[in-house]
Write a structure and sequence with these properties.
The structure is a single chain. β6, α8 and β7 form a beta-alpha-beta unit. The strands form 3 sheets. Strands 5, 6, 7, 8, 9, 10, 11 and 12 form an 8-stranded mixed beta sheet that branches. A two-stranded antiparallel ribbon has the order 1-2. It is built from 11 helices and 12 strands.
C-alpha cells in the first residue's frame, strides 16, 4: 500500500507534467474526494495508508483530469461565493467571475428590502440560491429552458435551505413569466458560435452548448432578455447582466435602446478582479 501523501504527490506530479496549471489544487481535491478525507486530515495525517481500491479510484479520476475534464465535474461540485454547489453535465460550471454579479445585487439590496429576484438561465442555481442565502427576506424565480438544469438548481436550493423562497419555471428566457420583479439577473450564453471550438477543452467539451452559444455575434441572448426584462420589472427595478469581453458597450447600448437608464447609485459597469467589465446594469424608469 501507499500513503495518502505519496498518492497526492504522484497525482500532482502527473498533472504538472501534463501542463495542468492548477496541478497541486486539482490533485488535493481529487484525493480528498475519492478517499473521503477532509483537507485538515490530508495535512495532519499524510502517512495514512491507502488500499488498492482507494488508489484505483484516485488514479481513475486523475486520468479523467488528464483528459481535460474539470475537477468540478469529476467530484460533482464547485465552490461559489463560499458555498458548495452540485454540478452535472446539464449545467454550466459556475465561474469565480460570476461572483461579480452577486456583489452587484447585494449592493442593490442595500437600497431596498424584500427583493423579488428572477434569474434567467439559472443552470445550477448558483446565482439565485446564493442571493437568497445572502438575503434572508428575498424571494426568487429560477428560470431555465432545461428541465435537467432545473433539477440541479432545486437540489442546490434545498442544500442551502432556500427552496421555500424559490419558484422554478421551465421556459425560454422570460416567456410566460409574469413578475413583477425588483431585480432580474442573468449570466446568459455569450460566446460567438464560431469561437466555441477555440475554447479550452475543459469548457468546449464539458459545458453544455446551450450555456455557451450566444449566436453569430454573441449577443443573441441579450436581444431576447432585455425587452422581456423591461416589461417584467417594477418601476426603478434593475436588470443586471454578466457580459463577455468587449461586449459591455453593445449591451449597454441595447439596454438604452429599450428604455433602461444608467443605474443611479449602483455602478452601471462593474469590474471583476481582473479589471474587466463583467456586469452591466440598467434601471427601469
Amino acid at each position: 500500500m501507499v500513503t495518502v501523501g505519496e498518492l497526492q504527490r504522484d497525482a500532482r506530479r502527473r498533472l504538472a507534467e501534463a501542463g495542468v496549471e492548477t496541478a497541486a489544487l486539482d490533485a488535493r481535491l481529487i484525493v480528498q474526494h475519492e478517499l473521503g478525507l477532509t483537507h485538515e486530515t490530508l495535512i495532519a495525517e499524510p502517512g495514512l495508508q491507502v488500499d488498492q481500491t482507494g488508489r484505483d479510484a484516485v488514479n481513475a479520476s486523475i486520468a479523467r483530469r488528464l483528459d481535460h475534464e474539470p475537477v468540478s465535474r469529476i467530484i460533482g461540485e464547485r465552490e461559489f461565493f463560499g458555498r458548495a454547489f452540485a454540478v452535472t453535465r446539464d449545467v454550466l460550471d459556475p465561474r469565480p467571475d460570476t461572483e461579480t454579479l452577486i456583489e452587484q445585487v447585494l449592493e442593490i439590496a442595500r437600497l431596498k428590502d424584500h427583493l423579488r429576484i428572477a434569474d434567467i438561465g439559472t443552470g445550477s442555481g448558483a446565482i439565485i440560491a446564493t442571493l437568497l442565502a445572502e438575503l434572508g427576506t428575498a424571494l426568487g424565480t429560477a428560470v431555465d429552458v432545461s428541465g435537467a438544469a432545473l433539477d440541479v438548481a432545486r437540489l442546490n436550493a434545498t442544500a442551502l435551505a432556500v427552496e421555500d423562497r424559490l419558484e422554478f419555471v421551465q421556459t425560454s428566457w422570460l416567456e410566460g413569466v409574469r413578475g413583477p420583479y425588483d431585480v432580474i439577473v442573468s449570466n446568459p450564453p455569450y460566446i460567438e458560435t464560431s469561437m466555441i471550438k477555440s475554447l479550452s477543452p475543459e469548457v468546449a467539451r464539458y459545458d453544455p452548448i446551450l450555456a455557451l452559444d450566444g449566436g453569430a455575434d454573441g449577443l443573441a441572448a441579450y436581444r431576447a432578455i432585455v425587452p422581456q426584462a423591461f416589461e417584467r420589472l417594477e418601476p426603478s427595478g434593475f436588470l443586471c447582466l454578466e457580459v463577455g469581453a468587449r461586449q459591455a458597450t453593445m449591451v449597454h447600448e441595447l439596454m438604452t435602446e429599450h428604455g433602461f437608464l444608467d443605474s443611479g447609485p449602483i455602478p452601471t459597469l462593474r469590474y471583476d478582479l481582473a479589471g474587466h467589465v463583467r456586469v452591466v446594469t440598467g434601471q427601469k424608469p
